[in-house]
Design brief:
The protein is α+β, with helices and mostly antiparallel strands. The protein has two domains: about 1-75, Alpha-Beta Plaits (2-Layer Sandwich), CATH 3.30.70.260; about 80-145, Alpha-Beta Plaits (2-Layer Sandwich). About 20% of the residues lie in helices and about 35% in strands. It has helices at about 20-25, 55-65, 120-125, 140-145, and strands at about 1-10, 30-40, 45-50, 70-75, 80, 100-105, 110, 130-135. The strands form three sheets. A four-stranded antiparallel sheet has the order 2-3-1-4. Strand 2 (about 30-40) and strand 3 (about 45-50) form a beta hairpin. Helix 1 (about 20-25) runs antiparallel to helix 2 (about 55-65). The protein binds iron/sulfur cluster (2 copies). The site of one iron/sulfur cluster (SF4) has 15 residues, from helix 3.
């Protein structure tokens, strides 16, 4: 038994599909909703902890993606806000575990959450605030600042 934290982003056209219920029913995964918000006719965001075997969690995530849910993996503590990352590479030199690395020749920055030890160095160096401490993470801050 292992656990994995993920962020689910639902666009409005799929928001009311019972996909999380099916994670429990079809895959027998245990889930814990850490935070959730639904914006009517816009999108929903749910921070979810999944528990089960590694393979079944992977199957459950595939099922979500097949149902057009955007799934972003989170380490226990650190999360990359993909929309803010410009792939500048500044964080890769400081990451002690190579959790952040440059993919060549595309020159995009990969984040391998399995390697992350939550040292926090990337959060200090990222000029765009893309690397976030999940314990301080507010997935809906942007929505509030737009209101
Ligand atoms: S928190 Fe530390 S280990 Fe994790 S990605 Fe950032 S620099 Fe790498
Ligand atoms: S420093 Fe920030 S913007 Fe640059 S690659 Fe790393 S996470 Fe992305």
């Amino acid at each position: 038994m292992t656990s994995k934290n993920i962020l689910l982003i639902f666009k409005s056209n799929i928001m009311y599909k019972p996909v999380i219920y099916r994670l429990a029913r079809d895959f027998e995964l245990v889930f814990n909703i850490l935070e959730a918000k639904i914006l009517p006719r816009k999108e929903g965001r749910i921070l979810l902890e999944l528990r089960g075997s590694k393979d079944v969690i992977a199957e459950g995530i595939r099922f979500l993606e097949q149902n057009r849910v955007v799934v972003e993996p989170l380490s226990d503590k650190v999360w990359r806000e993909e929309e803010k990352c410009v792939n500048c590479g500044a964080c890769t030199g400081l990451c002690p575990t190579d959790a952040l690395s440059i993919k060549r020749p595309e020159m995009t920055v990969l984040f391998d959450v399995e390697k992350c030890v939550a040292c926090g160095m990337c959060g200090v160096v990222c000029p765009f605030g893309a690397m976030r401490d999940i314990t301080l993470f507010d997935p809906f801050a942007e929505d509030r600042s737009n209101n």
